[in-house]
From TrEMBL:
UniProt name for this protein: ABC transporter substrate-binding protein
Species of origin: Amycolatopsis heterodermiae
PROSITE patterns in alphabetical order: PROKAR_LIPOPROTEIN
Subcellular location: Periplasm
Spans traversing the lipid bilayer: none
Length: 336
């Protein structure tokens, strides 16, 4: 597996301003040229986003009348920066990262909930460490600013600890997992598929996961607000394609797993172990999530909780505006 750091909480907008879009390796210079024009859609390593690969290989974008340049990013951070700067039209990213980009001034719209992480983000510890409270004074590797850093902070908070109570070792996610397997650190925060690597260490175990924090890590299709305003038919076609893809996967499970496992760089059997840890959202679950509410099931509630957390911990410098962020018109218009 190549290095695929996932879900950065800081958008690095200062670097974008200094160096411009051309500094982003692997990014497309194109943007939507109009309804029927080419849409550049970014995605990276996460089980909830691999269905886009199925959509491409099965011709489902074309079936829905949208011309998509599906852009794979080895580095998830690059995809976030590409969307924030306008180098791509849409991206697969978390609510956490979208809020961070919005706090830096990016005008974005969440038009679809792909999934919730329900166990595929984990804090994994060596033999002898059985609970998060046991991490006091221990070396914990995690990529600072990612949602696994966020998960670690949530877990520490629940255990009545803070980041100051551990020795945080900042490493890219793939390197963090490798360092843990090599015995260089006591614990690691990682996401699938790197959790598979981390658990190769004899006696290791997950002591916390995203399953314990429902709604904390939702993943989305995020577009520029400009795309929504100027080319709504293209956005609708992307959302329609997603639900068509889920139907195809349901009816062709083995073939779909083969496609997604290959894109993830893991075996079919390894990919199957990720199933329970990523809850793919149905159309109804999307509608429920977009509805305002007072539980983690609802995006507005989760967003405000995440903003409180990332601003209080310094992961974001200012509260972003939520105006225009949650746009459910396309899910509502999807054929049932």
């Amino acid at each position: 597996m190549t290095s695929r750091p996932r879900r950065l909480l800081t958008a690095l907008l200062t670097l974008l301003t200094l160096f411009g879009v051309t500094a982003l390796s692997g990014c497309s210079d194109s943007s939507a040229s109009g309804d029927g024009g080419k849409i550049t859609l970014g995605f990276s390593a996460w089980p909830g986003w691999f269905p886009w690969q199925v959509a491409q290989e099965q011709g489902l974008f074309a079936k829905n009348g949208v011309n998509v340049d599906l852009k794979w990013f080895d580095n998830y951070t690059d995809s976030i920066n590409a969307l924030s700067s306008g180098a791509i039209d849409a991206n697969s990213q978390t609510l956490n990262d979208t809020l961070s980009s919005a706090s830096g001034g990016a005008k974005l719209s969440i038009v679809l909930v792909n999934d919730n992480s329900t166990g595929n983000d984990k804090i994994i510890a060596r033999d002898g460490i059985t609970a998060v409270a046991d991490l006091r004074g221990k070396k914990v590797a995690v990529e600072q600013g990612t949602v696994d850093h966020y998960l670690l902070l949530l877990a520490l908070q629940e255990a009545k600890l803070t980041e100051k109570d551990i020795q945080l070792v900042n490493l890219p996610t793939d390197a963090a997992a490798a360092a843990f397997v090599a015995g260089q650190v006591d614990a690691v925060g990682a996401f699938a598929p790197f959790t598979t690597k981390a658990l190769e260490r004899q006696g290791s175990r997950a002591i916390s996961s995203s399953a314990e924090f429902p709604g904390a890590i939702p993943d989305h299709l995020v577009t520029s607000q400009k795309l929504v305003k100027e080319h709504p038919k293209d956005v609708q076609a992307l959302v329609n394609t997603w639900f068509d893809t889920l139907t195809w996967i349901k009816n062709n499970k083995d073939a779909a797993i083969k496609i997604m496992a290959k894109r993830g760089g893991v075996s079919d059997e390894e990919y199957k172990t990720y199933d329970a840890g990523t809850t793919i959202f149905t159309r109804q679950q999307n509608l429920d999530a977009f509805t305002p509410g007072v539980t983690a099931q609802h995006l507005d509630f989760s967003a405000n909780k995440i903003v409180d957390f990332i601003t209080s911990t310094g992961l974001a410098q200012q509260r972003p505006s939520l105006d225009g962020l949650f746009d459910d018109q396309f899910v509502k218009a999807t054929p049932q």
